[in-house]
Amino acid sequence: MSRIAYVNGRYLPQSEAAVNIEDRGYQFGDGIYEVVHLHGGRYIDEDRHLQRLERSLREIQLPMPMSLAALRMVLREVAHRNRLTEGLLYMQVTRGVAPRDHAFPKIPVPPALVVTIKRIPPYPTDVDRWTGTVITAPDLRWARRDIKSVNLLPNCLARQAAREKGAIEAVLYDEVTGMVTEGAATSFWIVDAKGTVITRQLGHQILPGCTRAALLAELAAEGIAFEEREFSLSEVTDAKEAFITSATSFVKPIVAVDGAPVNDGKVGPVVRRLFDIFARHVKGGLPNAA
Fold it and tell me: Which family does it belong to (predicted)?
């Protein structure tokens, strides 16, 4: 069966779906995107993703393409038309089609909305087989990383560098301060010798990850010690455990950084517990709202 996409009010086979070559997303990266995990027919952390979409759009002065209620209906219809209950949804809003000019169109045009979904493997059940390794790389992205913009060239270059070294992700750091920001497409976490879970605090330097937010809520509910603060590359080297989170990584243990094992190179007890906690969250045992 052909995959079905939603493009500016129409549901089309993806082989026939297209956008105008003067779409500002194509020409300038003038747009916002979200990626949402569909599991058991539920969009995981849907409210968080839609709230982040609204926030990112506000930050670049771009209106929502439709009401939230209408957008939720589109998301469900895309899943229904593709006959999927397990998948990964991508939605993108751009400033629309206008003659090429860096400034916004003098006469506003309707925002453009594209929604696609694809099948993904079943949710992981064996944490010991869900591990990965990372490299570290300078953070070359723009100053407003808290906006989920479609401008992802530095992220692509970092991910490619990781792939060429046999790793799954690049953990980025500030070249001036040596402080870690986040992964190229993930939130990055460490666990210190006391068992405290640490991830960088929110700000313009990192994306407010929805999986990050969900996991922090679960940490608080479970009474697991955590800190939101800057941490250095040397702290990563000394960490007892490390992991990444995202809509596609869930809670993914990192067992080596730049070729050196994290602690003993095996999944640690804290990350093992967090993997189980987040699995409950995904399967409906914990709240998915903000």
Answer: Belongs to the class-IV pyridoxal-phosphate-dependent aminotransferase family.
Reported as a single tens digit per residue, the pLDDT across 121-140 is 999 999 999 999 999 999 99
Any catalytic annotation for residue 148? Answer: yes
**Which domains are delineated in the chain?**
4-119 (3.30.470.10), 127-282 (3.20.10.10)
71 in Cβ contact with 50 (< 8 Å): yes
Residue 11, beta-bridge partner list: 6
- Which stretches does DSSP call E strand in 112-268? 112-119, 132-138, 169-173, 180-183, 187-191, 197-199, 226-228, 241-246, 250-257, 260-261
Is the pTM higher than 0.85? The answer reads yes
Q: Which of 106, 118, 148, 194 is catalytic?
A: 148
Q: How many CB atoms lie within 10 A of CB 150?
A: 15
